[in-house]
Each structure stands twice: as structure tokens, then as C-alpha cells.
Amino acid sequence: MYAAMAVVVLLLVDQASKVWIKTSMQLYSSIEITSWFKIYYTENPGMAFGIQLIDTNILTIFRIAIVGAFGYFIVKLAKRGFKQGFIICLSMILAGALGNIIDCMFYGVIFDSSYGQIATLLPEGGGYSTFLHGKVVDMLYFPLIETTWAEWIPVWGGQDFVFFRPIFNIADSSICVSVFILLIFYRRELSESFAKPKEENED
Hints:
By secondary structure, the protein is of the alpha+beta class.
């Protein structure tokens, strides 16, 4: 129950933030909140934090298959009586993955281009791409340290340095925070989740 509610809330917040960005900002424009936090609108066809590894179409289909299998896995663990907090963390990972899948599946169809203009939702002329070929919207940017490498440093001397450089979204945050919580507080449950239930071992 609580896990399902967490998934719904996360998806609503994630998609609301992305739709607001798409319909309020041009691609690569930014809003400075503080010196170390900016809303910087960018898009990527790849995985979390803007990493592009494989073809968009293959990646989206792969994501859908993995999310389906992971959802089934969570349901089985819930039936086995695992702790509610553990199930919620797993569900938040699922929700984060779903949030980015929605972008890839539908955004190319329901939005026109954001390059040099503010995108329109459900434009008359059609979207900027086709089904499964949408791009993931990222906007959270935390340049905690912006400086320049000293000239005497080999290779990087004189170059700009930014920490933390990745730009991400709420869905990415949900995945990363949930994984962190699982590794810190639910290591035993993680181990047990991959073990067969006692009744299966006795058969």
C-alpha cells in the first residue's frame, strides 16, 4: 500500500517538474537558485546523469523489460513478508526508472523541440520525434565547486574544474538515494531477497 503510494507520488512529482521545465524554459537555459545550485535544462537519450551507452530504441526496450521484471520481483518480496521500508526503497528505484522511461516513450510525441524555443505540449504539427525516441529531461545541477586547475598540474593545468558536474532529475535522485539507503540499512534484506524461501528449499 505505502510502496504503491510512494511510486505514484514520485512519478507525479517527477513528471510535473519535467513538464514545467519543458513548457517554461528553452533547452540549455538556466535559473540560478544559489551559487551552488542551478536549474539547468538539458536533455539526454541515455541513462541516468546524462550517460549515453547504446542506441535509444534498444535502451528504452531494455529498460521496459528490466522494470517489468523488477516490479514482479518486488511483488514476490512483499508477499514473502519483507520489511515495509525495504519494499518502499525498491519501489522508489522502480519509480525512478519508470519516470525516465515515460520521457523516452512519450516526450518525443507530445512535445515539439525545445531548441531555441519553449516547447509546446501536444503541438499541432506533431512532436520532435517518434514513439520510444524521446529524450530524458534533466534539470538539477549542483556545481558545488567551480575553479581552475593550477597551471603546474600535468594534463589538466589551466582547465576549468567543476564539482559536481552531472545534471540529473528527480527520478535519478530517487534511484540513487534509494540504493544508498539499501546499502546502508538493508544489507541483510538484500542478501535474503536473493535467497529461496524456506518452503522452496524444503521441496
